[in-house]
Every structure is written in C-alpha cells, then in structure tokens.
Amino acid sequence: MFGDDFGARDPTAGEIASNFTDKVLGNADTSHIIRGPKGLEKLVGLATRKCVPCENGNLHPLSESAAYTLRNQVPGWRLEKTDQGSLCLRQEWKVKDSRAGDELIKRIGDIAEAEGHRPEIHMKDDSAVAAELSTHAIGGLSENDFIMAAKINNLPMADLQPKAKQRFWA
C-alpha cells in the first residue's frame, strides 16, 4: 500500500558512531501511528461503536496481540499488566488544578454511564487524572475498553489542561 520507502530510514553507520541519539528530544518508546484520511474515524472508528453488554457471557478477553493491534487506534493509551496479571489500558492527563481534574472525571464518567462501562478514574494529585480500563467481568481487556478509550480521546480537554509554556530557542 505504501511501498518500501514509507516511514523513517535506518540511521547510517556515521550517525550511530556520532552518538546522535544523545541529542534527540523525545521518548525512545514513542509509537508512530499512521492515520487514515481526516474524518475516516467518524465513519469506521472505535468511537462510533457502542459497548456490548457483558452479562450474557458473550465477551471473552482479547489476546495480547489483538490488544496491541487495537491499541494503535487509541493514541496515548498504554497497555499494562495489572497486579493480577491481566491486561488493562492506562492513560494519564495533566490538568490545571483539582477543579479541572474533577471536571475531567465528570466528563469521563458521563461517557462511561452512557456506555455502561465502569473505568477506574482517580486524581493522582492536584494536577493529574489517571484512568484504567478493563472489563472486570471477563478478567481482561475487551473491545469495549478500546471503544471507551476512543470516546475518551474525543473529549474536549483543552480548557482543563495547563497552557503550554512558550519556548524561546537560543
């Protein structure tokens, strides 16, 4: 689809020898996501779907490979293991203050209520909110958790987050 020349190139031997990565800003574990055309997720994305009730035994935990595939559709969410060894999705947001944190928790709670989902949401401190998604009834991740993550990603949050400091380069 994209051809062999799509994406980043491998570093040259000279770049590696110069230790150029010591000067790179960013995170080594940054995941790069190829997005489809603008508006495509409104037609076929996870955020357009509805969570399926899990009382009937119709849901089963996703395999780790299936979870990693779906994780690519919810930027910012990390797959982690719980203390019990099952997979969960985690995300953390910086907020202006505790009032903004309470508002973010309310917004996420409104989505959860509409979807019949029960995420774990809490204030980490006065400037951060954390959320953990998993389907407790099946002891792991289901597609419902990714649907919730996609809907949370679509929430307006700019008014709750601290303003970025202006950078001046010397």
TrEMBL record:
Under the heading InterPro entries, the entry gives: PCD_sf, Pterin_deHydtase
Q: What is its EC number?
A: 4.2.1.96
Keywords, sorted A to Z: Lyase
* SUPFAM superfamilies linked: PCD-like (SSF55248)
Q: Which residues form a coiled coil?
A: none
Oxidoreductase: is it a keyword of this entry? no
Q: Which Pfam families match?
A: Pterin_4a
Q: Which Gene3D superfamilies match?
A: Transcriptional coactivator/pterin dehydratase
Catalytic function, reaction form: (4aS,6R)-4a-hydroxy-L-erythro-5,6,7,8-tetrahydrobiopterin = (6R)-L-erythro-6,7-dihydrobiopterin + H2O
Source organism, top-level taxon: Eukaryota
| Similarity-based family | Belongs to the pterin-4-alpha-carbinolamine dehydratase family.
What is the name attached to this protein's record?
A: 4a-hydroxytetrahydrobiopterin dehydratase
Q: What species does this protein belong to? A: Coccomyxa viridis
